[in-house]
Amino acid sequence: MKVAVEINNLSKYYGSFQALKSLTLNIYEGEIFGLLGPNGAGKTTTLLILATVIKPSSGNVKVMGIDVTKEPLKVRKNIGFSFQEPKALRVDTVLDVLRWHGKICGLRGIELEENIRRIMANLGLAKYSGKMFMHLSGGLKKKVEVAKILIQKPKIAIFDEPTAQVDVIGKHAIWNLIRELRDEGSTIIIATNDMNEAEMLCDRIAIIHNGVIIVEGKPEELKDKIPSGDILEIELERNLTRKEIGLMVEKIGISNFKATGRNIIFYINRGEEMLPIIMEKMNSIGIKIKRTMIKEPTLDDVFFYFTGRTLR
Fold it and tell me: Is the pLDDT of residue 296 over 90?
């Protein structure tokens, strides 16, 4: 596969704060690539550098082989950017916003009008076409922001939190249109903190935390990085002391676990078989259990496994 976006040792400082720390990443033509991480992880900063909105502090970034620092105008011809916060003149109508964006991207006549009609219909925007942008709800504004890029059909389509504030039906409509855009030849890059969105939509994912990519791959590959087959979550009646945690490990004989506050997470095989054994051994040393749950790994579990924190 050809590389659409090449990132090498990318760093970004805002004053003394380092938002990105030596990111290295390749994104390939024709894929939907997701940057998954909590707010403040560095996702938006990465996207804004790709789109030439801000400059990197160090490192090298190329989009379709073009250096974003040396030739930003050429890069912009290949990119469409759907911002996290919708951008439009408040007094424009929905139709005005979409026509204006289409025209500055080189679309005209029947092609533009057909694109606008189809996208508005699919996103449930048709009945709001004459309504001023300033009077729309947050979810509708977000749909308009996404619609601009779907109409443009750029080589590289960037979506920052594409379904924030959008209802469930609207989310699925946006996901379907993004897949359709990919199938028509665009390379898609998405920043999200929605695990379900990342797993449902993305061909590959990079999980980013504190400006560092901690792991990347296909969703199933990432989940396979968690050892053993099952995750056993146990909520206790109270926090454990270090001495009690040590005693628990000695009694149960499972060293692959994480403890945060009242919650203990064990990474085990044969979860249903092991659960009663673990509960009995914990009770025998005076550890009171409030709730238990066995599940298969999710992307949130991957994030927790590598960082000790949750995406939620």
Answer: no
